[in-house]
Design brief:
Blueprint: E1 3-8, E2 10-11, E3 23-24, H1 30-44, E4 53-58, H2 66-80, E5 88-93, H3 100-109, E6 113-119, H4 123-129, H5 135-148, E7 153-159, H6 166-179, E8 183-188, H7 196-199, H8 206-222, E9 226-229, E10 232-234, H9 241-247, E11 252-255, E12 260-263, E13 266-270, H10 274-281, E14 289-294, H11 297-309, E15 315-316, H12 319-324, H13 326-334, E16 338-341, E17 344-347, H14 355-360
Parallel strand pairs: 1-4, 1-11, 2-3, 4-5, 5-6, 6-7, 7-8
Antiparallel strand pairs: 8-10, 9-10, 12-13, 13-14, 15-17, 16-17
Length: 363
């Protein structure tokens, strides 16, 4: 099930925690960037099968104007066929730039899933994060998606925000459940270099974040959500098909600056700088790469195991992978971190919050 990811690196303002390949104040590059995307898509269609899923991320894709969104959809359809025929097509949006007109345009274009960032329902916490929209503006944007006919919506929430407490978090969760989305994603705040929070020496709060997350699990399960991946909850049948392909070590193609691709063990990513991406996309060789590597058979096995463990159902291992990692699997099982049943291996609930420590055992 090949997936197609399209990266739009433009945003109105960088959030204080954001370390993604996104840039504010570069709106003048949007038109030449779309032309570069068109060239890359035309080149890619000769070697890439028609995708089953599409994910348009950023940055802030909803920053694009209506005509620019039409141009984006058109160039993708010229290369890969009608968006409406895909199994799943996701569009990332932020509330301050998602208008009712854009919501209607996306629905008419065949987009069938939207992921919209909230992070918290308290405006003081949104201000602390550097978010541009208030909670009230978020509710209006969410409502515009429902009015446009979308019946598959994801909301992002964050734990471990400075000055956030469990009561704040549970209030945010209640507000989100009142909106009745089909999918909810959680992210613990991480402070990365070259972000505003790093410059301000904001500290992470992993224990507080884990406590909040633990409070959320029974509430979400009682509300009919299934905890299907470490950070993701969905109503039955609304799991993210695009992300499930990542976690199954499937093939995917990335278009745009910083976009990553994986094809049969070959992994690469386009250059991060959008201006250099635009410049090099016009060359016969195509966009310059940030990196390219071919995974060894051992690396592919380890990666397959780690990605599979992200799913709460775990992974049914092939004999060769199970045998190769059996000593480490048995060690982690003895420590109470893994549950093993035949060839199926999965994280125990207690290990969800320290999953990176488990994954390090297989690197």
């Amino acid at each position: 099930m090949p997936g197609l990811y399209v990266h739009l690196p433009f945003c109105r303002r960088k959030c204080n925690y954001c370390d993604f390949a996104s840039f504010a104040g570069k709106d003048a590059l949007i038109e030449p960037y779309l032309e570069a995307l068109k060239r890359e898509a035309e080149r890619a269609k000769t070697i890439f099968a028609r995708p089953d899923t599409l994910y348009i991320g950023g940055g802030t894709p909803s920053l694009l104007g209506r005509e620019q969104l039409k141009k984006l959809i058109s160039l993708l359809e010229d290369a890969f066929g009608a968006v409406k025929d895909l199994k799943e097509s996701t569009f990332e949006a932020n509330p301050e730039s998602l208008t009712p007109e854009k919501a209607a345009l996306l629905k008419a274009a065949g987009i069938n899933r939207v992921s919209i960032g909230l992070q918290a329902s308290q405006n003081r916490l949104l201000d602390r994060l550097g978010r541009l929209a208030s909670f009230e503006e978020f509710v209006k944007a969410f409502s515009s998606l429902r009015l446009a006919g979308f019946n598959n919506l994801n909301i992002d929430l964050m734990t471990g925000i400075p000055d956030q407490n469990p009561e704040n978090f549970m209030d945010s969760l209640k507000e989100v459940l009142d909106l009745a989305p089909e999918h909810i994603s959680f992210y613990a705040l991480e402070v990365h270099e070259d972000t505003t929070f790093a410059a301000e020496k904001v500290g992470e709060a992993p224990e507080a974040a884990a406590d909040m997350f633990e409070l959320a699990i029974p509430v979400l399960e009682n509300a009919g959500f299934r905890h299907y991946e470490i950070s993701n909850f969905a109503r039955p049948g609304r799991e993210s098909a695009h992300n499930l392909n990542y976690w199954a070590q499937g093939d995917y193609l990335g278009l745009g600056s910083s976009a990553a691709s994986h094809m049969g063990g070959l992994r690469r990513a386009n250059i991060n700088d959008p201006e250099l991406y635009i410049k090099t996309a016009a060359t016969p060789e195509g966009p310059a790469l940030e990196y390219s590597e071919t995974l060894t058979p051992a690396q592919r096995k380890a990666e397959k195991l780690m990605l599979g463990l992200r799913k709460t159902d775990g992974i049914e291992l092939a004999d060769d992978i199970f045998i190769e990692f059996k000593v480490r699997i048995d060690k982690l099982a003895a420590q109470g971190l893994l549950e093993v049943s035949g060839r199926r291996v999965k994280l125990k609930k207690e290990a969800l919050y320290i999953s990176n420590a488990v994954f390090r055992e297989f690197v």
